[in-house]
Write a structure and sequence with these properties.
This protein is of the alpha/beta class and 228 residues long. The chain has a single domain (30-42, 72-219), classed as P-loop containing nucleotide triphosphate hydrolases (Rossmann fold). It contains 7 helices and 10 strands. The strands form 2 sheets. A 6-stranded mixed sheet has the order 6-7-8-3-9-10, sandwiched between helices. α3 (96-106) runs parallel beside α5, α4 packs across α5 (140-152) and α5 runs parallel beside α6. The longest helix has 16 residues, at 170-185. GO terms for molecular function: ATP binding; ATP hydrolysis activity; transmembrane transporter activity. Part of the ABC transporter FtsEX involved in cellular division. It is found in: Cell membrane. Its main location: membrane.
């Protein structure tokens, strides 16, 4: 579960990215974060995996006040958080298998568990036959599938997806969305920042709209609500 109580994010240059945010996202939800460019979506997302700290207020991730967590303990908090980025952020010198396995190695998973688990998630994302390929040998859609496999390999309670279809063509974008929906059906919370109007309006889920650092709309089965 994710909770924010009266959360403000003010950057050193004085920009108020978020102002008085109050929100709760329960386990198993699928939530779109929408809004104009510069509205505060990225700051909102980054608070969830402690890339940023709130200036004021409380952010609770699975009951843990992340503002109070010391930096050296952040990797422990993130063990139950998967993150998917627009630009994939794969390690270029590692194969698809190695990129996913690295996430398990980072939390010191037993070696005997790594291979079967990595193969399991690569099968889920449809890339078992491409597991030995380097990122440069994969299409954009395939790279994003590897990124998703890496995000879920440690069985996170929720996945944060920041514009996961932003660099993909429409066909690959829909494939990624159907994959995220399947992961959500298996019980993982999905929080997805997006500018993709068609996806939001077709695959209806909860929509949280942010404008000028404030939540202006929070509705189940909502629409995108902005022009392309």
């Amino acid at each position: 579960m994710i909770e924010m109580h009266d959360v403000w994010k003010v950057y050193p240059n004085g920009v108020e990215a978020l102002r008085g945010i109050d929100v709760r996202i329960d386990q198993g939800e699928f939530v779109y974060i929408v809004g104009p460019s510069g509205a505060g979506k990225s700051s909102f997302i980054k608070l969830m995996y402690r890339e940023e700290k709130p200036t004021h207020g409380v952010v609770l991730i699975n009951g843990v006040n992340v503002k109070r967590v010391r930096d050296w303990k952040i990797p422990h908090v993130r063990r139950k958080i998967g993150v998917v980025f627009q630009d994939f952020k794969l390690l270029p010198h590692m194969t698809a298998f190695e990129n996913v396995a690295f996430a398990m190695e980072a939390i010191e998973s037993p070696r005997r568990k790594i291979k079967p688990r990595v193969q399991e998630v690569l099968e889920l994302v449809g890339l078992v036959d491409r597991m030995h390929a380097l990122p440069s040998q994969l299409s954009g859609g395939e790279q994003q599938r590897v990124a998703i496999a890496r995000a879920i390999v440690n069985n996170p309670s929720f996945v944060i997806a920041d514009e996961p279809t932003g660099n993909l063509d429409p066909e690959n974008s829909w494939d990624i969305m159907y994959l995220l929906e399947e992961i959500n059906r298996r019980g993982t919370t999905i929080v997805m920042a997006t500018h993709n109007k068609e996806i939001v309006n077709t695959l209806r889920q909860r929509v949280i709209a942010i404008e000028q650092g404030v939540i202006v709309r929070d509705e189940i089965g909502g629409e995108y609500g902005y022009e392309d």
